[in-house]
C-alpha cells in the first residue's frame, strides 16, 4: 500500500528525518480493522542499558532522550512525555526535547500542551525543521489552514536548504492538499476524508472531517469515519468515543455498533464487544460481520460449538471473509477435524493472497503446516 505523508515528523533512532506512517487498515468495504501490530520493535538490551544508565545517573539527559524516543516508537506516550520532561529539567534549552515531548503530547491528544512545546522548540531553534512540520500537523487538526500552510512552507524551505529532497517534496504535497480546501464544499471534503481513510492517511482524514462536522447534516457518518480513522491510528479509546457519538446520532447505525465492538476487543473489552455484536445482529440479521465478530468472542471464550455456528452463518452470508475461514479452521483444528481445518485455512490463504495481505497469508500457511506436522 502506498502512503502519502500521514503523521508527525520525527527523528529516527539513527538520527535521520522521517515521517512516521499511519497503520494500514483492511478495505473499508469489509469493515474489518487491521490486526494490531506487535509493539516493542527494538532490541530490549538497549532499553535495559538505558534504564541502567538512568539509575546510575539521574541527570543523564542523553539516556532519557534515547529512552523517550523508544517510548514514542512503541507508542507509550505518557512514558515518553515523562522522559522528555526529564531532559528539559536537565537541559531547559534543549529544543529537540520540546519537539519530541510535543510529538508525544500530540499522539496522546493533549493538543494545547503540544502546541506550547512546539512553540518553545521553535523559539529555541528557529531552524528546527521537524518542529515546523509537527506544529503544521497540529494546526491542520485544528482547522487553522493558513497557519498550517505557513509552517509546512517554512519546514519545506529548511528541508531544501538542508538538502533533504524527500522531506521537501512531502511537505509540498501537504501544502498542495491544504491549498485545495477553500475550493471544496462540505460534500467534497467528506468524500476526500473517506478516500484518505481508504489509503491509510488517517490524520488528513480526521482533519477533513473535523472541518465539516459542525456544518454537515451527516454527523453520524462523520463520527463513524472519525472512529475508523482512530482505529487506523490504533487509538481505540478515541475510536469508541466517536462510535458512541455516531450511535447517539443514529441508534440503528449497524456498522457503528460493529466497529465499536472491534475497538472494544482491541482493549480486551470482550463482554462490551459481545453486547455490541449482539446489537449488530439484532438490527440486521443479514450482517455477516456481526456473526463473524460474535464468533471471535466465543472462540476467545473457548465456546467452540457456538463459535463454529457463528462462523458458518457469516460465511453463508458472505463467502469472501478470509478471517472467518481462518478462524473456522482454527476451531476445526481444536475439534480435531484436521482435514476440514486445512481446507478452510487454504481458502483463507487464497483470499488473503488475493487481497494482498501477505502477513495473514503466511500466518494461514503456518497454521496449515502446524496441523500437518501434528498428524
What does this structure look like?
With 375 residues, this protein is mainly alpha-helical. The chain has a domain at 9-181: Alpha Horseshoe (Serine Threonine Protein Phosphatase 5, Tetratricopeptide repeat), CATH 1.25.40. Helices cover 71% and strands 2% of the residues. The chain has a two-stranded antiparallel ribbon with strand order 1-2. A hairpin with a 5-residue loop joins β1 and β2.
Q: Can you summarize this structure?
A:
With 375 residues, the protein is mostly helical.
Rounded mean pLDDT is: 88
Largest sheet: 2 strands, antiparallel
Shape: globular
- The CATH topology of the domain at 9-181 is what? Serine Threonine Protein Phosphatase 5, Tetratricopeptide repeat
CATH architectural arrangement of the domain at 9-181: Alpha Horseshoe
Total strands = 2
Termini separation? 38 Å
Question: What is the radius of gyration?
Answer: 23 Å
The assigned structural class equals mainly alpha
| Fraction of helical residues | over 70%
Write the CATH homologous superfamily of the domain at 9-181: Tetratricopeptide repeat domain
Amino acid at each position: 500500500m502506498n502512503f502519502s505523508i500521514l503523521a508527525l515528523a520525527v527523528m529516527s533512532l539513527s538520527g535521520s528525518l522521517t515521517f512516521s506512517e499511519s497503520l494500514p487498515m483492511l478495505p473499508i468495504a469489509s469493515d474489518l480493522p487491521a490486526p494490531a501490530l506487535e509493539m516493542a520493535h527494538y532490541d530490549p538490551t538497549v532499553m535495559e542499558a538505558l534504564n541502567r544508565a538512568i539509575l546510575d545517573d539521574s541527570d543523564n539527559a542523553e539516556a532519557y532522550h534515547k529512552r523517550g524516543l523508544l517510548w514514542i516508537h512503541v507508542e507509550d506516550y505518557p512514558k515518553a512525555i515523562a522522559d522528555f520532561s526529564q531532559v528539559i529539567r536537565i537541559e531547559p534549552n534543549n529544543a529537540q526535547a520540546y519537539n519530541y515531548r510535543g510529538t508525544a503530547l500530540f499522539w496522546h491528544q493533549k493538543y494545547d500542551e503540544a502546541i506550547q512545546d512546539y512553540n518553545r522548540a521553535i523559539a529555541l531553534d528557529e531552524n528546527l525543521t521537524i518542529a515546523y512540520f509537527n506544529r503544521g500537523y497540529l494546526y491542520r487538526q485544528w482547522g487553522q489552514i493558513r497557519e498550517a500552510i505557513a509552517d509546512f512552507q517554512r519546514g519545506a524551505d529548511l528541508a531544501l536548504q538542508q538538502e533533504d529532497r524527500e522531506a521537501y517534496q512531502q511537505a509540498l504535497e501537504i501544502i498542495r492538499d491544504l491549498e485545495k480546501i477553500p475550493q471544496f464544499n462540505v460534500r467534497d471534503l467528506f468524500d476526500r476524508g473517506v478516500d484518505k481513510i481508504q489509503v491509510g492517511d488517517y490524520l488528513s482524514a480526521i482533519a477533513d472531517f473535523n472541518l465539516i462536522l459542525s456544518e454537515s447534516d451527516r454527523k453520524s457518518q462523520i463520527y463513524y469515519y472519525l472512529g475508523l480513522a482512530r482505529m487506523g491510528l490504533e487509538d481505540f479509546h478515541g475510536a469508541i468515543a466517536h462510535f458512541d457519538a455516531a450511535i447517539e446520532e443514529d441508534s440503528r447505525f449497524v456498522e457503528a455498533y460493529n466497529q465499536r465492538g472491534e475497538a472494544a476487543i482491541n482493549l480486551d473489552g470482550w463482554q462490551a464487544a459481545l453486547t455490541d455484536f449482539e446489537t449488530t445482529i439484532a438490527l440486521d440479521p443479514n450482517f455477516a460481520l456481526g456473526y463473524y465478530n460474535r464468533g471471535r468472542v466465543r472462540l476467545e471464550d473457548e465456546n467452540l460449538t457456538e463459535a463454529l455456528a457463528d462462523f458458518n452463518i457469516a460465511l453463508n452470508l458472505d463467502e469472501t471473509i478470509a478471517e472467518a475461514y481462518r478462524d473456522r479452521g482454527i476451531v476445526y483444528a481444536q475439534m480435531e477435524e484436521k482435514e476440514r481445518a486445512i481446507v478452510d485455512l487454504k481458502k483463507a490463504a487464497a483470499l488473503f493472497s488475493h487481497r494482498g495481505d501477505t502477513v495473514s497469508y503466511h500466518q494461514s500457511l503456518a497454521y496449515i503446516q502446524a496441523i500437518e506436522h501434528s498428524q
